[in-house]
Amino acid sequence: MKYFALKIAYYGGAFSGFAPQKQAKIHSVSETLQNTLKKLGINSEILGAGRTDKGVHSLGMMVRICASAHWTPQRLAPLLAKKLYPNIMLRAIWEVDSSFHPRFGAKARRYYYVFSSKLTSPFVAPFVAYERIGDIKIIRQCLAMCIGTHNFALFCKQGSSIKSTSREIYTAYLRIKHYRGQTYYIVCIEGNAFLRAQIRLLVGAILATSRNEISLQNFTEQLLAKKRHYSQPVSPQGLYFAKAHYENLPPKCYLI
To answer: What distance lies between CA 132 and its chain's CA centroid?
Structure first.
């Protein structure tokens, strides 16, 4: 058997999320990838770097598959890319050894949240959230406060079964882009790992603080896991799994 690491981008609006779903007639990214591989005669488990929720996009989700020894990246990539089209794009493929694990081997994960304070065209709306904003300085201040190791127990979806709610944020910042008369805001957050809905809840609370719906002290108390003041996540269509960082990937890959 051979093992391959695939970097994929996908349109989250076409799927119920990355992980398999128990409900009938609901399609996840991993199930779609698994079923597509079966059409090529490859019956493989799908291991991913993370789990995105319904409507959340990816620019570079990393997954691992296994296939019989006659497959090579050069042979597999063009066949798989065509069959995954149009909602999943195969961006790169590596041949790896069996020890590579996209989730446990990831040293960092990066997310983007893209939004606008004005309604966008229907061709852009599935990829950009519409959110009201307030003081930009407050947004940047809150993001800076998130950097470091914190207990994010009050910034995760209730009912999540996890051993620890402590996570480390390496970087968090806001960028502003202007394009064709529209202003787009991009929040970048990178950390070692994230809880379920953590990014959407964090951004929701930060925007609420910027609008003065909750105070900076309220946000600080929630970040310190003392008291929940805000619990409304922002919409999923603005969220992107940007990339995962690994130290043990082979230097050469087959790019699509």
So the answer is: 22
3-55 pLDDT per residue, tens: 999 999 999 999 999 998 776 667 899 999 999 999 999 999 999 999 999 99
Residue whose C-alpha is closest to residue 237's, from 113, 73, 151:
113
pLDDT tens-digit map of 178-194: 998 899 999 999 999 99
- Greater confidence, 21 or 238? 238
Task: Report residue 59: phi and psi, to 5°.
Answer: -100, -20
Strand partners, 164: none
CA-closest candidate to residue 227, choices 174, 155, 171, 163: 155
| Cα 113 to chain centroid, rounded | 9
pTM here? Answer: 0.94
Looking at residue 160, what is its pLDDT? 59
Which residues fall within 8 angstroms of residue 10, CB to CB, at 6 or more apart?
29, 57, 58, 61, 87, 88, 89
Cα–Cα distance for residue pair 226/129, rounded to 1 Å: 29
Are 156 and 165 contacting, i.e. CB atoms less than 8 angstroms apart? Answer: yes
37-41 contacts, C-beta under 8 A, 24 or more apart: 37/65, 37/67, 37/80, 39/83, 40/76, 40/79, 40/80, 40/83, 41/68
Structure tokens at 180: 């064709």
Give strand pairing partners of 96.
3
Average pLDDT along the chain: 95
Structure tokens at 244: 């995962």
Question: How many Å apart are CA 15 and CA 17, to the nearest integer?
Answer: 5
Active site residues per annotation: 53
CA pair distance 48, 59, nearest whole angstrom: 14
Token pair for 175: 């960028």
